[in-house]
Amino acid sequence: MPLEQLVQYLVSGLTLGSVYAIVALGFTIIFSVTGIINFAQGEFVMLGGMLSYWLLRGVGLPLLYACLLTVLVVSMVGVALERLAIRPARRAPIVSLIIITIGASILIRGVAGQLWGKDAVALPAFSGEAPVDVLGARIAPQSLWVLGIGAAAMVGLHVLLSYTMLGKALRACAINRRAASIVGIDPQAMSLFSFALSAGLGAAGGIVVSPLAMMSCDSGAMLGVKGFAAAAIGGFGSQLGAVGGGLLLGVLEALGAGYLSSSYKDAIALVVLFIVLFVRAHGASGERA
Amino acid sequence: MPTPARIPSFTSRRSPLLITAFLFLLLSSLAAGLVGCSAAGKVEPYKIGGLFAVTGFNSPLGTPEKETALMLEDQINKAGGINGRPIKLIIYDTESDETKAVNLAKKLIEQDQVLAIVGPSSTGESLALVDTVEKAQVPLLSCAASAQIVQPVRKWVFKTPQSDSLAVGEIYDYLKAKSLTKVALLTSSGGFGTTGKKALETAAAQAGVSIVASESFGDKDTDMTVQLTKIKGSDAQALIVWGTNPGPAIIAKNMKQLGMSLPVFQSHGIANRKFIELAGDAANGVIFPAGKLLVASSLPDSDPQKSVLTKYAADFQAKYNKNADTFGGHAYDAIMLLKKAIEKAGGDRAKIRDAIENTQGFVGIGGTFNFSAADHNGLGKGSFTMVKIVNGEWTKEQ
């Protein structure tokens, strides 16, 4: 039993952690290119879950198309956010821009609530609900989907950033905006692209986790906070750090709830965040904060 | 030079808009006046206030309550009103906001001069305006669940929904009958879960039930396998879950995933279609205490509530083309109680209050109400029934 229990806790923690990691990645991408902490990141995840459900049940699209269209539409929401709210205020101090994203998150939440109601919705599990046995622990197939999509997102992002022209331009902007523009990279286009990318990424996370976690119009706020904590633990600006921070947070929460008490679950995440920020103010692996 | 040139074009573009807005305002105020005139008929109607959370996070409660209230107003007036006088409902939306609820209650009392107020929908809003109605001496018939609203007893405050302790009692009686004595609790850390947990703990000793594990979950948590794995490792014979969606649905799914065969009892917080929809197959086998409305058609004919329940369900279905639910039932009880009281007492607030307090044997949706000076809820054992979900349908248990 103890080993089974441990495995069960770890799997729960990793599944949860993958979602935090995806949200944290979204934070990181936008932060490294624009210096903005986008507090509407959690809302992209919520939109992913809610919009895909509506396309599937309300419009009647097949699951795959509903998911792809959702990622596309939510990316467009990210683009719209950058174009309509961030760009017009680009000369304002960073703090104002961050507050704009908080406003945007409230707006998105409100609109989603008006469009789709306040109730929680859940997509059907992608490949059934019969649990898989691993070392005595029982794992929902959807957890494997979450882990798989999470891993695919991380690898995909790595390939994009390291091996494509677009990704290299994005990184150049992150390293030195002015130098990048001197060599012909358009920082504004890169800012736009970073919003589209993290919105799409968030939506994919929201879609894949919705059969397990269920989504309602106010789910985004909590995911945003946890993803922010994960990004801060890993150090803003570091993709690897964001992923590590997310997984660590998920596992710690699960182990804490399992071996201490479920009442302390959220407190554990915050205590870890405090410790990391006290010891290393720039996160465990980030270059800057 | 360019600046003065821009100003006239700006105003001239704006002015048609302003005129339109002005005309619109004028027309709408005229229309309101006309409606006001025609509504004031020959006989002065009995005015009743309604405060429901039609929007905001409590809208799943407030919406059916408002719909029920409007339906009853229609029915009562078509049947000739009360003592030959029609009733007039003045309903405001509290937007699930406690401050708004208090302000709207004052408006109902001072401006609209209602005889009594039905609602509000939630415990927080009800407690917030208790002082207001006590001071103004207006009867309040709350549609919210918490026992705190009527304990300690307040002179002018009543409530129609069953209290948590009755639901707990029903579950413990069931456990005793099946000789299950060791239970694990998994309660939400929100308001509903916390008061439920307290009620479960308080009643446990007397019911001969021992609580061997107690875990909690946040209302926004997305995975409860950890808590459940812990409970799986305890020697509990049954699990009691206390929360409102989506938490309980996630728990049901997680239990199926973990292959747990522990009997599960949930609270009346899941007494809606949404739970079955969210939990899917995993909802099957879950047992919970619920108002009898859920299983109205399978009640024995000897049950005094049966005819009231089936009529309400059929009327609601016919009018709104959707299923009636427990929350609408709370408003039904409040308005029908008030109707009976006005029949006896006429248009006097103090006499109406006395008439409500002396109501005996009123058969409503929530149960059979017997009010007294010490009990402003009036419901006793038997107002809940145990319901089991079988093949995605509610069925009466035992």
Structure characteristics:
heterodimer; A: 289 residues; mainly alpha; 11 helices; 2 strands; 76% helix; 2% strand; globular; B: 398 residues; alpha/beta; Rossmann fold; five-stranded parallel β-sheet; four-stranded parallel β-sheet; 47% helix
What does this structure look like?
The complex is a heterodimer of chains A (289) and B (398). With 289 residues, chain A is an all-alpha fold. Helices cover 76% and strands 2% of the residues of chain A. Chain A has helices at 2-34, 41-59, 63-86, 94-116, 141-163, 165-175, 177-182, 187-213, 219-234, 239-260, 265-279; strands spanning 132-134, 137-139. A two-stranded antiparallel sheet of chain A has the order 1-2. In chain A, a hairpin with a 2-residue loop joins strand 1 and strand 2 (137-139). The radius of gyration of chain A is 19 Å and the shape is globular. Chain A starts with a helix and ends in a 10-residue tail after the last helix. Chain B is of the alpha/beta class and 398 residues long. Chain B has two domains: 46-162 and 302-370, Response regulator (Rossmann fold); 165-281, Response regulator (Rossmann fold, 3-Layer(aba) Sandwich), CATH 3.40.50. Helix content of chain B is 47%, strand content 17%. Chain B has 13 helices and 14 strands. Chain B has helices at residues 2-39, 59-78, 98-110, 123-128, 130-136, 164-177, 191-207, 225-232, 247-258, 273-279, 306-320, 326-345, 349-357, and strands at 46-52, 87-93, 116-118, 140-142, 157-159, 182-188, 210-217, 238-242, 264-266, 287-291, 362-363, 368-369, 384-390, 393-396. Chain B is elongated and about 70 Å long. The termini of chain B are far apart. The model of chain B is unreliable at 1-14 and 28-41 (pLDDT under 50). The interface between A and B is medium-sized, with 36 and 32 residues.
